[in-house]
Structures are given as structure tokens and as C-alpha cells.
Amino acid sequence: MKKHILPAIKLTAVMILFFTVIYPLAVWGIAQFAPNAGKGEIIEHNGKKHYVNIGQSFTEDNYFWPRPSAVDYNAAGSGGSNKGPSNEEYLAEVQARIDTFLVHNPGVDKSEIPVDLVTASGSGLDPNFSVQAAKVQVARIAKIRGIDEVKLNQLIDEQTEKPLWGMFGPEKINVLKLNIALDQLK
Amino acid sequence: MFTLSILLAIPYGKYIAKVYGGEKTLLDPIFNPIERIFYKISGINPQTEMNWKQQMVALITINMVWFLLGMVVLMNQDNLPLNPDKNPSMSADLAFNTVISFVVNCNLQHYSGESGLSYLGQYWLMFLQFVSAGTGMAAAVVLFRAFRDKSSETLGNFYNTFVKSCTRILLPVSFVIAIILAFEGTPMTFEGKDAITTLQGDSVEVSRGPAAAFVPIKHVGTNGGGFFGVNSAHPFENPSYLSNMVEMVAQLIVPLAMIFAFGYFIRRRKLSWMIFGVMTVGFLMLTIPNINMEMNGNPAIAAMGIDNSLGAMEGKEIRLGAPASGFWSIVTTVISTGSVNSMHDSSMALSGMNELLAMMINAFYGGVGVGILNFFIFIILAVFISGLMVGRTPEFLGKKVEAREMKIAMIIALLHPFLILVGTALAAASPQYTMDSLNNPAFHGLSEMLYEYTSSSANNGSGFEGLGDNTPWWNISTGFVLILSRFLPIIGPVAIAGLLAQKKYVPEGDGTLKTDTATFGLMVFAVIAIVAALAFFPVLALGPIAEYFSLY
Description:
The complex is a heterodimer of chains A (about 190) and B (about 550).
Chain A: H1 2-31, E1 42-45, E2 48-51, H2 88-104, E3 128-129, H3 131-135, H4 138-145, H5 149-159, E4 160-161, E5 172-174, H6 175-185
Antiparallel strand pairs in A: 1-2, 3-5, 4-5
Chain B: H1 2-21, H2 28-42, H3 52-75, H4 92-103, H5 113-116, H6 119-148, H7 158-184, E1 194-197, E2 203-206, H8 214-220, H9 241-265, H10 269-296, H11 299-302, H12 321-334, H13 349-361, H14 370-390, E3 395-396, E4 399-400, H15 403-429, H16 431-434, H17 442-457, H18 472-502, H19 518-551
Antiparallel strand pairs in B: 1-2, 3-4
Helix pairs in contact in B: 1-9, 3-4, 3-6, 3-18, 4-18, 6-7, 6-18, 7-8, 7-9, 8-9, 9-10, 9-12, 10-12, 10-13, 10-19, 12-13, 13-17, 13-19, 14-15, 14-18, 14-19, 15-17, 15-18, 15-19, 17-18, 17-19
């Protein structure tokens, strides 16, 4: 073993240099050409900057609500609820979310609420929700903002992102972009 | 996606076989000079032939160096550079667990990347992701060599195969993927957290970091340790469906290619098709039900009367969806990656069981290098059992399998269930240390503990992450499971291969048991099924199966 120690240390040192300095710098160099120079994609709105990929919390009735989050959309960290499917406490929480939603959205039938609106995402930062999740909130927002429902549905259609190459993955909507577009409607 | 991975893996396997065989390849002009510098500085002669024992000594020595250096880095990171978020140093037990876990290619993470590591710490772990994968591959190559030559003592040079694995096999693929991810939206910046005001007016912070270079090797090297806390569920780490596909192919490609490389290297391509066939049947038997169950969703939530058509969305991301998440959950557990794109703790009960089974078997594809070593153990067992059944001398590739090899194979095959079951039993028997860390009650709580030890022993690294595992109990107990379950299953198969290599080659005759046929494949599958089912069925019945019945 002894005769291997010194070569092992030296080999480690030179490999650290190669794999943790040269390789990342090469990637970093190329990433300068990526969106926002690799600092995370952003959109500017009213002089404020927002990260496109990071979901935000919307609790007021005049915005589209995103999915529940185990970390309240604070992207300093990330996390899911990690609740098991049979956990009684968890199931009660889901039931409470359904009830709350129905209180804020009178006239909506339970069977119209899509499951993503009452379950927390894995990261707690999910920037998207399903198309149905937007549609089910249209009546509420139309009433509060005094905008025609047809116009809102058009907005949803515009904001719907199709699956990759038309076939891979679900249809989805970026909640932040949708709400920014909603603000611009007025 | 899966077909694409196979199509890519076949030529890549050929390339790997060429690299290990020392033949000319396309990338020689780049890597020959680089490797020459490596060897010159470290004073290693990569042409010195070693036998299997010398290789194992070299392997363990360099792993020790990484472990000690790692403890120093992680316990002092707050005083070291590249720490824009001022994250604290790790406690001794957490550093112990983290370093071991990355040295052994497991990447169990009892910390959360955003708050637990500086960028220097992250990059130290990235270094370990490269070299631990290289270690596993170098060990597998000893096995390759042992069956290529008819009879030999020397089996190549550890440093040579190890360095080549890192530079020529892992790095080029990682580099390409890093660039794809950077353009898909994964950050690559050395700046720290960004404070922003949301549209609604709340103040939040957004963690960033040089993640684009880190994420590829976590998959290509089947390490699985994420940059951010929630791994590939994080919208920065896995920003789109496309990045999800790329990361999926990234983790499948090397384990698949190693199977084909084995066939090319020992010039028995039919054998690698047998291995591939058995592994794929097993893989599909776990994957298809999982995709199905996740798409069907949680019956308890469906009973509430809402629109459940998206499937089980708790712990899953909309941009990926339930089917892709269910598929990933098996890919990552069958292969010892352990990165997650959905929270396994919230998977349906029987999906959770399949994830556990995938790790309990740990040989359908398996981790880079070590997957094939684990599978080799099952082959040796199958050779012996079929030999007994038909009354022939057990032989594998022209080498007699005798008592000594069988003993080693038995010990290694039983070590894995032993570590998992004893670990879980101890945890269940010590509620004063473990009860508080559970996130779910009843059967699911047992599954959380079982998953933690299974993931450790399989060197997988995923978790039922509800488990509050940053306590001395979990850090230390899983740390020891990790060491044992990494190095013994490397040394065991390599020792068998080394012993077999020294034996005289017996030419194949009419009396030889053919090991590259479908019949023999079935035999191997049966051995795997029996070892896994008998050892693990009781505990699975208490955990996920009991939970399943409580849901209906």
C-alpha cells in the first residue's frame, strides 16, 4: 500500500485541476452564449426581474393561483411534501385545499378541479400548471377584473405551451408568464 | 427514449472496448498528451502490469486519499473560497456520511445543496463523481481482462484503466450534455443567491450556481447527487422535457454500453446479448407497472371527486408529467444513479415497492462498472446451480468454478440483503433514535427506513426524502453500510475473476454448459428472482404491500 500513497496523492491533485477547474471553465465559457449568460433565464416586467423557470407564489384572487408548494415558492431552497399516498393527515390537507378552492370559486364543480392544483410539486418551485388548472379559475378572475371570459380563454390558449415536437410530455402553462400577460390585458 | 439509449449504447460500447483494449480512437490526439502530463506529474508508469490483488490495493489506497481530503474540504468550507452564500461547514458526522457516499458512487445526500455546500464543496463532490465512476469501471475492466486471455496472472494497470475511464469515456459525454443543459436553462454562474420581488410583491431569494457542469456527470457516472436539494425535480436542474430526456439517456448510456463493451472486448458478443436480454426483461417488468400506476393516480384522491386524469401529481412536476416521472423512478433505481425527478416518498405504494425491488436486485444494468460485477455474481451462482442440475462440472467461459469462487460469490450475494435487513431491523428496534425522523406514519414509515438502507446498500443514493436523515444515527449507520456494500462487492467479483484467470483454460466440448443461450439466461433470471424474493418478500409485505391494501 505504501508505494501507492504518493502517486495516488499526486494523481489526485492533477486530476482535481483538470476536472474541477479546466472542465467547468470550458463549460462556463460556452455558457456565456446561453440565455442570460447562464445566470438563469429572466423576464423583465415593470422594471422588476423574474426568473422564468422558478415558480412564484400567487395568493390573491385576481391572479391565477399556482400549484401548492411545500416551500412557499421561496427558491432559496427547494422541496416536496414527501407525504405518502396513504397518509391520513396529507389526505385531509388535500381535501382542505379542494374546499378552499370551492369557496373562492363559487359555481365551479368539484370534478372540474385538476389534480395538479391540489397537490404540491416535487421541487416546490414548479413554474407550470396544466391547461385545465387555468381554465377552472377563469370565472373568478373574469368577475374580479371585469374582463370578458372569452378574452381570458384566448389568453390561456396563447400561453399554452405545446408538447415537445408535438408528442412528448404534457401541455402546460407558465403561471408567471400567464399572470404577467393578464396584468398587461388591462 | 429507451430505444434511443440502446441505439447510442451499441457504438459507444464498441468505443469503450477500443479504449480499454488500447486501440486507436478518434479522441487520441486530445487525450494522449493530457494523460501523459497526468502520469509524468504523478510518477506512474501506466504500462506496468498488475495482478488483481495489486489493482485492489491501488484502488483502495487512492479511495482513502479522496476520503481524507474530502473530510478536510467539507468540514472547512466556510473558510475556503467560492462560498458566496456563506454556507456553513459540515458537522463531522454529516461530512463523514457525505464524503463516503460520494466516494462510493452512492450520493446519498443528508444535506440540501442550496444551504449545505459552498460552490467549492459542490465541485469537490463533482470531482468525486468523476473518479468514483472511474473506479467502478476500472474494477469491471479487471473482470473483462480476466476472460479475454486464455490464462494469465496480470490483468492490466489500474491507473491506466481508471484514468482512461474518467477522461475518455465519462468526460466527453458530460461535456456535450453540459452544453445542452446550459442552453436549455440550467444556470452556470459563480454568483450567489439572487434576491427578487415577485409579481405579487413578496421578497424571495433564488439559489443559483455553476450547475450545468455538475448535472451531466451525476447522470453519466450514475452518481445521482443533485446540485440543488430536490435534484432533477428542480426547474434549474431539469428545466424542460427535452433536458429530462437528455438526462435520462445520460444515465442509461454507460451502463448499457458497458454490457456491449464486455462482449466486444472478450470477443463473445452473444454473451453480452444474453446479459442484456435478462437485464432488459427485468427492467421492463418493473418499469411498465410503474408508469401505469403513476398515470392512474392516487385512488384516495380520486375518491374526493376531482379531475384525477393527470395521474399522481404529488411530488411531481407538470413539465415532466406522471409517465416520464414513473419511468425515471425505475431507471434511476435499477441503475444505481439515485437522482430523482419526482419525490419517491409520494409515489404510489406499489411503485415504491418496485423502486425498492430495483435496488434490492441491483443488477439490472446497475451502476457504471459495478452493475456488471453484481450481475457476474448471479452468473456464477447460476453456473453452479445449473451445473449441479444437469450433472456437469460448473464452468464459465472455459474456466472451472470451484469451491473457493463459490464461497466468495455466496458471501457477496448474501451481503446485500444482510446489510439492508439488519440495518432496517436495528432502526426499527431503536425508536429513540429513529422515530422522530419519520415523515409518514404506519406502513409507509417502515418503508422510509427500509428505503434508506436499501438505497445505501445498493449505492443508489435516492431516498424517501421525507426521512429527516441528518442525524448522527442515520449519518453513521448508513455510512458504514455504504463502505461495506461498495468495496466488498467490488473486491469479491474481481477476486473471483482473478482466480479464474489464473486457471487453465478448458476448451469447450459437448459436455460444456453454454452460457450464452436463452435457457441459461432464464436460469440467471430465476436465481435473481429467488434471491431477491426470498430475502426481501417479508419486509416488503410489511411496508409497501400492506400500504397498498390499506388504500383500497
